[in-house]
Specification:
This protein is mainly α. Helix content is about 70%, strand content about 0%. The protein is built from five helices and no strands.
């Protein structure tokens, strides 16, 4: 999980430069997108920044806004668990709606 955090930190300037997060096309991508969004939230990225990065896709923006209803943790272990739990909730909803199909 430490690699994921390092990757998220490394990707942050690229994502900020691109000004948007790519929209997922299946539930597996929803899961990893939700993890990435929650990891950015846990790292302290301001809500307006994430909302702007996801403004091009209403579903992504909903995930970003939802991330800020969750607390921010100081412990790396709690941050990782928060990201996984958050992503699993979105995966479950997506799977119930779409199964394994692309959308």
């Amino acid at each position: 999980m430490k690699r994921l955090l390092i990757a998220a930190l490394a990707a942050l300037p690229l994502m900020a430069q691109a000004q948007q997060i790519e929209a997922p096309t299946n539930c597996r991508e929803v899961y990893f997108t939700a993890i990435g969004i929650m990891e950015l939230r846990q790292m302290g990225v301001d809500m307006p920044v994430l909302v702007e990065m996801t403004a091009h896709h209403k579903g992504l923006q909903s995930i970003a806004i939802e991330a800020y209803t969750e607390p921010r943790y100081l412990s790396a272990a709690y941050r990782e668990k928060a990201a996984r739990d958050f992503a699993e909730d979105f995966y479950n909803v997506c799977y119930e709606m779409h199964g394994t199909k692309e959308f």
